[in-house]
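hey can u run this one w/ zinc ion bound, need the structure tokens asap thx
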Amino acid sequence: MEKLIITCAITGAEVTKEINEAVPYTAEEMAESAYQAYLAGASIIHLHAREDDGTPTQDKNRFKVLIDAIKAKCPDVIIQVSTGGAVGMTPDERLDVLNVNPEMATLDCGTLNFGGDDIFVNTENDIKYFAEKMNNLGVRYEMECFEKGHIDTTLRFIKKGIIQNHLHYSFVLGVRGGMTGEERDFLFLKDSIPSNATYSVAGIGRYEFSLAELSIKHGGHVRVGLEDNIYIEKGVLTKSNRELVEKVVKIAKKYNREIATPQDTRRILEMENK
Ligand code: KMH
Ligand code: ZN
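ok here u go:
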């Protein structure tokens, strides 16, 4: 099997220090958390920006500060910026981050309820607009799919030539409003994508490690991190992003999956010519 790409989603936009004090906000905290995750085996850092008080932002200047701080500690790590931002942001606000010329970004592939009264809006035209911007700028994107309909949208867009990237999916499962992360869900999604595509899984909350193990077993890749899950095991808060990555590395050892370095990851995702 191919080496395992581990992505660490270090902070997100929704989790706060109130629920786990390890959630990084400041540039120093983000850089240290990313660095520790990298040392443990993460080759991609999925990055949201926040102000020092934790407020989410898509401001390009703030992203630049964060990316510079992370790259100062681990120059070869791949930084995948979020174009999802936070619920309620406008498409153009979310796209400001593309002005930092990121190596990689997310492309959210459909709308869904996001818990309580929240709706994460990604209309068909939004997705097209985001994909075309990233195509024009040469930014590599990972397609985030929260349920099967999102994959079907990508298949239509691939046929129309709107999605032009190497096909790399992220199945984000377990959001309140999206698809659950049971084994049958994973198998259904994995079997629904084109045969030449690669995929990673991001299990939200209690699905984080069960989905990681399934993906490792089937040759897929894995995302973990405080954005998705704050526990290292049931009822026990994790101390750090590093600890979450270390747990995935342990599972990977059980299945003899080697861990991809950032260079391996660029090769696997066909990013080398970017
Ligand atoms: N914060 C969520 C509303 C992404 O990073 O592309 C969206 C999100 C997706 O986290
Ligand atoms: Zn995110």
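The chain has a mean pLDDT of 97. anyway lmk if its weird
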